[in-house]
Amino acid sequence: MQYKTKQGVQSENKALEIRSLSLDYIMQDQSIHAVVDLNLVARTGKITALVGESGSGKSTVALAVMGIQDKNAVIPGGEIYLAGTDILSMPKKGLRSYISNHAGIIFQDPIDSLNPLLTVGEQLVEAVLIHEKITKKQAFTIALNQLLAVSLPQPEELMKKYPFMLSGGMCQRVMIAIASVFRPALLIADEPTTALDVTVQAQILHQLDSMRKRDGTAILLITHDLGVVAEIADDVCVMKDGYIVESGTADDIFSNPQHTYTRQLLAAAL
Amino acid sequence: MEVVLAETLNIRKTYEKQNLFTKKRDQVSAVNGVSLKIRKGYSVGLIGESGSGKSTLGRMMVGLETPTEGQALFRGQSISNISLRQMRPLRRNIQMIFQNSSSVFDTSYTVGESIAEVIKNSEKASKKECLEKVETILEQVGLDALYAQRYPKELSGGQRQRANIARALVLHPEFVVCDEPVSSLDYSLRKQILTLLNDLRNKFGLTYLFITHDLSCVPYVCDIMAIMYAGKIVEQIDLKKNSMQNALHPYTSLLFSCIPAKVPAERKKCTVESIIDTTVIPDSKYCCRFFPRCPCCTERCTNEEPLLKEVASGHFVACHIV
Amino acid sequence: MQVKIQAVKRSNARFCSSHGIINRIFTQKTAVFGLLIVALIIIIAIAASVIAPNDPLKVNMSMRLKGPSSLYWLGTDNLGRCIASRLIWGARMSLIYSMCVLGLMMAIGIPIGLLSGYAGGRIDTFIMRTIDIFLSLPTFLMALAIAGMLEPSVKNMIIAMASVWWAPYARIIRGMAMQTKQQDFMLAAKAAACTHTQIIFRHILRNIAPPIIVMATLEIGSIILAIASFSFIGLGAQPPTPEWGIMLSDSKEFMQTQPQLMVYPGIAIIVTVMAFNLLGEGLKNAIQN
Fold this sequence. Notes:
- The complex is a heterotrimer.
- Chain B is an alpha/beta fold.
- Chain B has helices spanning 54-62, 84-87, 101-104, 111-122, 127-140, 157-169, 187-204, 218-221, 250-257, 299-303, and strands spanning 4-18, 25-34, 37-39, 44-47, 69-74, 77-78, 94-97, 175-179, 207-212, 224-229, 232-238, 309-312, 315-317.
- In chain B, strand 12 (309-312) and strand 13 form a beta hairpin.
- The relative contact order of chain B is 0.13.
- Chain C is mainly α.
- Helix content of chain C is 76%, strand content 0%.
- Mean pLDDT of chain C is 85; it is low at 1-16.
- At the A-B interface, helix 7, helix 8, helix 9 and helix 10 of A face helix 7 and helix 9 of B.
């Protein structure tokens, strides 16, 4: 069943669907198959976790979906349906704005992801103005509301601060605010809490959880920490060396893992 | 009679900046008066979040940073304000495993050369003896002896951390400070490295000061658990006599409640509703530093600094409520 | 796949060792071009006595201002000396003088920069203020003034240039030493019981050596130009030394009638400077990547 929303045509419940995606890195004398024949679905209102070790290719998938993969990366085959449309077959012209209207991404190191020379307010307003042609004052109000939506205290004061004045957790919330300013269908979180303390991690995970409940955002959570997965994920895909070795609901994966690699990962829990 | 291996006497570290025009001093205190005793054979786990001062404390106890006040002692001898030359002979027995394994090695030398440097600085060993020692320690940490000829960039994260451990332990020091050794590693490698650290501890008779922000690492290598907040130790539990679950300080309870579930069935309905501005820590010496975040703070907490008191054998808490 | 990534990592690591850097230079066309020209100039300079067709100092007034011939490959100058031979010997002179200046500059600048960057505190402040004084003086004029005050000769020119130009290098080296000091492996080196000397030489210097080499290569061009300029105005090498700057100076009077007398040494200077610059850029790119 297909239905139109104000963000365009969306397939039933699937904010992101990846079919048989392959991605190779072309180096000087060889090419590395970073992603091989990957199939993945992120449903609206659900948190899908993509789990794997370093080098398994999970971050590569995130970059490919956002269209910001490395210059050396080549996609020999596959389709990425973002909110119903295959972005790999879209013409380059409208691609950027389509992706930024339908997906947002937050990275691991929040302080490095923000521009150190601009205040939080300036960066948020810039993000708003990219999407909509409105006045600066209106953009400012939207930015303020967005900061409140991610539960940051005293937003007026916060708008004037520079990233280095904020803690890691607050920066990560600002990143979430920027990425989700126009309620994208998909939010990709690439190891969002790896660099954060355990109390801040709990807050950020709670924030992501309430976002998907309130706005119906599909969240693709990329992590190597099974604790985070157990805490908030609905669906899990386990990735190894570019392949998805197992996928299913979180309950299934934890209680009844089928693949040896999944069992190894679970056994490595502290 | 247990030997006190490493100790700090009311140690403090403050970073100061003075504005030349307004003459206003901007003080950031990293460590605020910590007196910690580490006895030989009893490894201490120091738990705290970023900004709690645990890494600074660790560095002061190894003699890599000078305290503003107070002293760090090793076997009764002060290591805080001595020169590099006086410190050198002590380095055999005090070592540190650093957090960020990729930047700890000088990339222009191979792993073997970096480890050999440690040996050559402390004793006169021939080239052959050095090589033998390097190969032995590499094998003991689970790396093939061939890795001695590799450059640090050629190793994976887990292998580099093992090489890091090899470098710290090659001279069989007595006291080793492990500064978040598994934080930068993949989830699946953590258990391996923690098991390795524990095995080596038993094999060489080491005593660790294990610095981490992850409570779940503690049972693997530690006998005593100390929780640090805003530069002070707020709770200390001897794990042989008490269980970690008997923790009393509100901050420790908060840390426990934030640990992610092990399986989805144990998922908590997250209770961390209130957003606490973590950059706000009261600077005064006359109050409990945790009171802005404490769910059960009283007026006494805002006026008087709680001191560590013994509530059970081997269990110390700095709180007015308990 | 893990094996493949390891293999790539290993080859990347080789890239970062000296063999790797040489490999990476070979991938850049301009750098290879520069390297070939520099190599050619060095060979010419070393084998000057063998290659040069004639004695560069031999005056032969009957053969003055002749065109190219089989004996005089580029013709003769106003005193009947073989231009080609003078150019070839000039290459040797230029290289020797510039290496001397570079050597002195580095010999003064590197230790001072390292000391200042590593020691910090009062020593650093004192050295920096000294460097600031040197930097505030117009370097070229200073060098001229010193060379002018002492008797004009090659030795004095070299001393004059090195005594002023060490300052910018000391400052850059100080900056690099300070940056290296912040890195984690410095703490590890202290924990490994290294003495101050060991830290400075084994760790800091070894890590900043590549950028220093790049700086030096890029600087040779400027030094050669400066030496030629000094000789042009008579403060450096003295006639009859076959030096490109002197050749330019001698040919001033014949600019209108015999322009080739100026063109040949001019081209030699341009080509040499350009070659060193290209090589330096290539090295910089190879090290940075």
